[in-house]
Amino acid sequence: MTGPDNINGISRRERKKKSDLFVCPLGGMGEIGKNLTVFGYGEDYIVIDCGLKFPEEDMLGIDFVIPDATFLVENKSKIRGIFITHGHEDHIGALPFILPRLDVPVYCSRLAGGLIENKMLDANTGYHPDFRYVEACDKVSAGCFEVEFIQMCHSIPDAFALVVHTPAGAIVHSGDFKFDPTPIDGNRADYSALARLGDEGVLLLMSDSTNVERPGSTPSEKMIGQTFERLFRLYKDRRIVVATFSSNLNRTRMIFATAARFNRKVLLVGRSMVANVELALRLGTLDVPEGQMISAQEAEELPDNRVVILTTGSQGEPFSGLVMMSRGTHRQVKLGSKDLVIISATPIPGNEKLVSQTVNRLFACGAEVIYERDEKIHVSGHASRDELMLMLSLTRPRFFVPCHGEYRHLVRHAQLAREMGVNAKNIFILQNGDILKFSGSSKAEVAGHAPADAVLIDGFVLGEFEGSILRERREMAENGVVVVSVVLNGDMRPAAPVQIQTRGSVYSSEDGSTLRELESAVLAALAQFSRSPGARRETLPTEIRKRIREKLDMNPRCYPTIIPLVTYI
Amino acid sequence: MTGPDNINGISRRERKKKSDLFVCPLGGMGEIGKNLTVFGYGEDYIVIDCGLKFPEEDMLGIDFVIPDATFLVENKSKIRGIFITHGHEDHIGALPFILPRLDVPVYCSRLAGGLIENKMLDANTGYHPDFRYVEACDKVSAGCFEVEFIQMCHSIPDAFALVVHTPAGAIVHSGDFKFDPTPIDGNRADYSALARLGDEGVLLLMSDSTNVERPGSTPSEKMIGQTFERLFRLYKDRRIVVATFSSNLNRTRMIFATAARFNRKVLLVGRSMVANVELALRLGTLDVPEGQMISAQEAEELPDNRVVILTTGSQGEPFSGLVMMSRGTHRQVKLGSKDLVIISATPIPGNEKLVSQTVNRLFACGAEVIYERDEKIHVSGHASRDELMLMLSLTRPRFFVPCHGEYRHLVRHAQLAREMGVNAKNIFILQNGDILKFSGSSKAEVAGHAPADAVLIDGFVLGEFEGSILRERREMAENGVVVVSVVLNGDMRPAAPVQIQTRGSVYSSEDGSTLRELESAVLAALAQFSRSPGARRETLPTEIRKRIREKLDMNPRCYPTIIPLVTYI
């Protein structure tokens, strides 16, 4: 550092301190989802990924969850760009909500850019991102940083690890990755770039922890191809329905190829399946011979053994193609004993029941179903233990931060790094919002905390969702509501009959006797109230609640939400 | 059949028809849970098992689900007894709700009887069952039936297959089983009884389908013992916490034995763990040396390496021992880096998230955690594919009904039976309530349907729970409620200000502007109403709802439940 000792009253020492490198994940730590990490050095910040997360079961009525952008908005003027590792929702899905508030360039592959554009349209933002398209091996300058894009393998094409070259040293952010030695699209992970970085010296490695619990290596996508080949041969007389992730365009490519080899045409079903295949065709990521894709009408006219239906719904999503087929409510595709259904996916944690119910319904349609339990019909997109060790071996980082995992994954990955020789005091299990500050290149510590609570999105309402709303929903969901309206005249006596209604309560029953009991409880509260001349009006609702609660307490586990409305005339 | 041609106006043919054998599952088909099957012949009915099921996620506020007992209550006078295969909740848990209405003897092992008694006490029924205790090899007469109890292996001691000897032939009901060649308690499955039955001829086999998707054989419980041995040796300096199913008393026995070998004492945590161990000690199912069980106080005073804590909570149940420890809210046990926690169980489908959250919290306490992903620390209690084939080989049934499984399991098990040579037309995938009627011993068909809807239990309210209540709860859970009270005078004009309250709605926000908008919508409805002299009073709530809905429609995904209360003075 050079320069005068004192600028604007800030000493050189202060300025130097201000220019420490920091890393701050606003999401993705202790969770799989809403990945977003901020890197800062002096007046320059960059962001890697900006994803969403699907809600927990107890987040009633919530559509999804995004990171808190407060820290970004406060430092908006410093942000030199958002860098996208790949186009999955947990890495791009929060952009429609956060990007318009920051209005900074987005560096990403053309495929990720197309997926982001579709998200922007869906969310009706009217905002047009300033895309700066990149390819593997590209290097981009952003303030004092240089960001390098390194080819990796994952369950979507164009997945990158990012190297953030900072004045304090190089940071490798693995993105979501695996080392697939035989990828479908031929784009192998760039082992040599990682090795070169290791030779040059890596300050910090942040690495995907999703599959740290799995021993060995994640099988190659190619293996799935062999399974499909076998199933297509075995069930050569049936119509074949394949459900998979619409973003897994390498699998899509493989299914198209297998279909062509078995002289079958492909019908696409599901909005995102159609949209993603169209996007991939436009960008040249996918290449399908003329006439290989057919309409529902054409599929109807072809014999069963000439048709493959490629559909959404591998996670049992309620309104997806496969689920509507399984319910018999799909407009174009009716399933029966002529069909083989292949679910080429594993349930994402939390979706197990939805998938299982879908499989049961598919069997009930009479179809034969090949799913998780049966065959090698899916491989993960994330590195298993041996590959995580390879990543550590290639990059040999001084500091290590496990990322993209639940807390247990981060602990296991930290244990692994320690076993691999990373100094225990240089390994940090961070929480969302932790600001990890580096002093030069030899010392780091958590030196602050940015706001990083989850922001819940209900519908497309932009903004925060108060926790109290969720609590109220949970209470009503468990026990229902009892609504009471009383009208009082000047001397605090009832001017009309008490009105009581219930919803979702065991007291909703037709049997009026309970309602009459509740009514008498309310009348008792009113009588008590009119006898207490000193009582303040505001306390009456509490009194009504109390009396009703006493009456309901005869059933010790019935606690509806009680809403009294008192009108004075 | 002999006897006069005509008795009480019923012909011999009619009587013969009435005396057809039937089998009717009221639960347990297409689901894992609430097992209950009725067997009938003429005027004699018997019931096998009477279990509960835990609710699906969308059954808001429901504690559990039991079978519909209508068919049983209607035929109460014919029921000769309820026969219990084993003491798991999905086989006994509905007894407190159904048994008092039938008041028939219960045939079961002493262990199952003890567990049923505890359930009866918990549910506060005040009913004392008429237990008839049985042991393996016992035969019991019940009307025209003879029921034989056959020793099997399962994840609870004293698990039986039942053979129902009927005038039309023998029915083998497998119960929940596996063939464990080296069971902890030495009670091996009675292969030879099954083989003898096969030789004598089995009319119908009903067999456990839970693990039909798993190839090979389910490992022996003994394997777990080896894993424990290894872990106890490896973590010899730590306190060891083991969470498992409290009913798996063979595992409990094994943990006590391992603890004793490593010179550790055992502290029991969790109500059901304490209750079940006490019961097993009383019955002699478990045998623990004097002084081997210690109090929390004593555990506190011993060094870490002398203590094992055996606790409930292996499924992440909210108020269980392990979960309270993981939250730091357990009164007696505080976890830290000195602890090894072993979760000796697999998440039951639907509990994955709860277990995963618990593991994350345990790691966050600083404990080392061994769970599913790591080690061989749990084996299933259900037969895998090879064992299911063995059951079919031994019994060689003429008819086959797969049971105890989701629909997909039943289909796979039916396919397996067909491959094993059972005639396809003699295999029936039944639904709950289906009455499978046998004509002699060569023909069977579904010839009727008994009521078999799920009965939902909220708290300990006995009786049915209306579907509409659940629907209302779901609606409120998704979007909250808006409650409106209006007071009108004789000429249908507002006599007081409109009152509006919301709960769990995005419109609950402090910002009063939306509430004012809703108020103006209500006033518009009232104005419209008073201008329409012909309008009937009953239609006003609908009009209010409509106007509010219109106002809210500006946000297309916000559909709160709207509850209008109109008072006329």
Question: Which structural traits does this protein have?
Answer:
homodimer, 569 residues, Metallo-beta-lactamase, Chain A, Rossmann fold, Ubiquitin-like (UB roll), eight-stranded mixed β-sheet, six-stranded mixed β-sheet, 17 helices, globular, disordered N terminus, 5'-3' RNA exonuclease activity (chains A, B), hydrolase (chains A, B)
What does this molecule look like?
Two copies of one chain form a homodimer. Helix content of chain A is about 30%, strand content about 25%. With about 575 residues, the first copy, chain A, is of the alpha/beta class. Chain A folds into three domains: about 20-215 and about 380-455, Metallo-beta-lactamase, Chain A (4-Layer Sandwich), CATH 3.60.15; about 220-370, 3-Layer(aba) Sandwich (Rossmann fold); about 475-569, Ubiquitin-like (UB roll) (Roll). The longest helix of chain A is centred in the last third of the chain and has 20 residues, at about 510-530. Chain A is globular. The relative contact order of chain A is 0.11. The interface between A and B is large, with 70 and 70 residues.
